Amino acid sequence: MATATQRTKVHTVTGGDGLRLHVREWGDPGGPPILFIHGWSQNHLCWAAQYESALADEFRLIAFDLRGHGMSEAPLEPEHYTDGRLWADDLAAIIEHLALDRSVLVGWSYGAFVICDYVRAHGEDRIGAINFVEGVVKLGSAAFGTLIGPGFLDHFAGATADDLPTNIATMRSFVRACLATPLPTADMETAVCWNMAVPARVRANLAAREIDDDDVLRTLTVPVLVTHGRADTVALPAMAEHILATCPVAKASWYDGVGHAPHLEDPERFNREIAALTTRLRV
C-alpha cells in the first residue's frame, strides 16, 4: 500500500480577500470527500492520525491551514480575521477549487466557527454532513467560564503576549491541557511546533470576534455528529450539550476520559465513526 506521503497532493487556493491558503489532500481521489478543519493555533498536521490511517484507502481526505496558520498566508492586521464572511469564503474557495461534492466537514474546536460561517454565507447544498469535534459555537464574555474553560482561558494571555519565551512556555502548557492522556513524546513535540507556527497577534485576532452560532445550528438539516470528550477543559462538555439542545439534527458521541482532542487521543474510534458517518451518506 502506498504511504500517505506518496499520495499527498498540495494546492494553493485563493480565499477571502485574496489570501493564499495551503491545502493538502490524501487518499482515493474518487472516494467520498472528508474535509478537515483544524482549530485555534493548529494546522493540518493535527490530522495525521486520520490521513495516515486506513481512511486514506477509501476516502478522499482534505485538510488545510486556516488563514494565519501553518503554511497559509498570515497577515497580522485584525481585519483579516474578524470578518466571518472571509472565513466562509475561504472554505467556499476550497470546496470550489477541489470540486468537492457533499463533503463531510470535520471541524475541531475553532473549526466549528468556520463551518457555521460557511453555512451562514453559502448554505448547506455542498455539504453531506458535519462533525463538530470539541466544536466551539459561542465566543465572548458570556461563554467564558460557562462554555469555554480554564484549558483555554488560563493560557490566552501568555499565548498572545509579545514575548517569545512566554509564548513557548504557554503553548507547551496549552498542548498538555488539551489532552487527558499525553501523547508519545515525539507527537507532543510536533504539536508544540505546529502551535508555535502561528504568530501571537494572529491568535489574539481570532479571539477578538464575538460569535453566536445558534442561528445556524437551529437551521441545519444535514446530519450533525457532536464528538466531545467528557474530560475537556478547553471547550467544556456544556458546549456540546448546548449544540445538542440547539441543533435539532445533532447526535452525540461522548468520549469518557478524553480531553480536547479525541482524534488524537482515541484515533481508532474516531476514524471508525467518521468513516461510518461518511459511508451512510452514500447509501
UniProtKB/TrEMBL annotation:
<dbReference type="InterPro" id="IPR000073">
    <property type="entry name" value="AB_hydrolase_1"/>
</dbReference>
<dbReference type="GO" id="GO:0016787">
    <property type="term" value="F:hydrolase activity"/>
</dbReference>
<keyword id="KW-0378">Hydrolase</keyword>
<feature type="domain" description="AB hydrolase-1">
    <location>
        <begin position="34"/>
        <end position="272"/>
    </location>
</feature>
<dbReference type="GO" id="GO:0016020">
    <property type="term" value="C:membrane"/>
</dbReference>
<dbReference type="InterPro" id="IPR050266">
    <property type="entry name" value="AB_hydrolase_sf"/>
</dbReference>
<dbReference type="Pfam" id="PF12697">
    <property type="entry name" value="Abhydrolase_6"/>
</dbReference>
<protein>
    <submittedName>
        <fullName>Alpha/beta hydrolase</fullName>
    </submittedName>
</protein>
<dbReference type="InterPro" id="IPR029058">
    <property type="entry name" value="AB_hydrolase_fold"/>
</dbReference>
